[in-house]
Design goal:
With 375 residues, the chain is α/β, with parallel strands linked by helices. 25% of the residues lie in helices and 30% in strands. The chain has a 6-stranded antiparallel beta barrel. A 5-stranded parallel beta sheet has the order 3-2-1-4-7, with helices on both faces.
Length: 375
């Protein structure tokens, strides 16, 4: 990747979560001859913050008190300055409040995308400017390249397909990509752990957390009710034909594709096919009724192109662990695009992101607002 700035002229703010990936990112930034500065984000503060972290995060989650100390120790071992930034108000406003609002609308959000967009990267780029840093760096498994033919910065998949995190970075702008270093993009996780062990990092073999950092027990409805103080409102379970099957506990307890925890008995397996917040209904159907072949996305961010004015063959990924599938994509408005899959996809879910790929290049993405083509 060419940035026009010699490595020895770069002053890089490295986001260090306390995990092995970001510690190795800092190591590689320093090895490239850059002036590296470590930074960890404190996402809880004020009265009861320590209790909240212990309750919501746990020892393996990013940004816990233990993670801050682990990151500090890694920075000390590297001999680089280290700072802790209090982004707690931003995290609550831009991540937790958006998460709660989405569930109350019957959607299923991806808070990691909002955290990267508004806090971990959005706020960190602004802090880097204040510190006169030329770049920031993270431990994401993805790549950034400049395309001379288009004059645009490109976001590409990480070479380790099992660890690729380009999906959660689709909101990056051209200005941000031009100042972002992703040293792990061409490495595998075993290679990263080997580098960490070689460097003597205490977190070289630290297990990874798979949970949302502020809801590690997975009880999203309980978290929402604790935060808002508002009990979930029961309503009707209905079928796709409008028939009433029984009562649900409140729409925040359910997501499209869910089978377990319905509290009803049927002759055949039944799944949540849709959630209607206006009628306070959870729509159930058989497995085949989960499959759709079309979606509408809004809140767009395009990276590789300025627009998609004509139908274009791309691959689309509808959630983080989903393997992207071939589709025809066309932009239908300034902030709207339509994706038509060649084959119906299971549980296309409002609130999740759809990310578009051309090979290993991220074309862009948006938030799923509608789905259709019931099969």
């Amino acid at each position: 990747m060419s940035t026009g700035i010699s490595p020895f002229q770069r002053k890089v703010l490295v986001a260090m979560s306390g995990g092995v990936d970001s510690a190795v990112a800092a190591l590689l930034v320093k090895r490239r001859g850059c002036e590296a500065i470590g930074a960890t984000l404190r996402l809880f503060s004020g009265e009861g913050a320590d209790e909240a972290e212990e309750s919501f995060r746990g020892e393996k989650a990013c940004c816990s008190l233990e993670s801050v100390e682990t990151a500090r120790n890694a920075a000390r071992r590297l001999g680089i300055p280290f700072y802790v930034f209090n982004f707690a108000p931003d995290f609550h406003r831009e991540v937790i409040e958006r998460f709660i609002s989405a569930y109350q609308r019957g959607e299923t959000p991806n808070p990691c995308i909002d955290c990267n967009r508004y806090v971990k990267l959005g706020k960190l780029f602004r802090r880097a400017e204040e510190m006169e840093c030329t770049h920031i760096s993270t431990g994401h498994y993805a790549r950034v390249e400049f395309s001379p033919s288009t004059g645009r910065w490109l976001l590409k998949k990480g070479l380790d397909q099992d660890k690729d995190q380009s999906y959660v970075l689709y909101n990056l702008t051209q200005a941000q990509l031009s100042r972002l270093l992703l040293p792990l993009g061409e490495l595998t996780k075993p290679q990263v752990r080997a580098l960490a062990e070689e460097a003597g990092f205490a977190n070289a073999h630290r297990p990874e957390s798979q949970d949302i950092c502020f809801v590690p027990d997975g009880n999203y409805a309980g978290f929402i009710q604790r935060c808002t103080g508002i009990p979930a409102k029961p309503g009707d379970f209905t079928g796709t034909g409008g028939q009433v099957y029984g009562r649900h506990k409140g729409i925040i307890h359910y997501t499209v594709g869910q089978r377990k925890g319905l509290g009803l008995s049927f002759p055949q397996p039944m799944y949540v096919c849709a959630i209607d917040p206006e009628k306070n209904q959870v729509v159930l159907g058989e497995h085949r009724e989960l499959f759709m072949d079309r979606l509408i996305a809004r809140d767009l961010n395009l990276i590789a192109v300025e627009s998609i004015p004509k139908p274009r063959e791309l691959s689309a990924k509808i959630r983080y662990r989903h393997r992207e599938q071939p589709a025809m994509v066309v932009q239908t408005g300034p902030d709207e695009l339509e994706v038509r899959f060649h084959e119906p996809q299971r549980a296309i879910t409002k609130g999740q992101a759809v990310v578009l790929y051309d090979g290993d290049i991220v074309v862009g993405g948006g938030v799923i607002a509608e789905s259709g083509g019931l099969k």
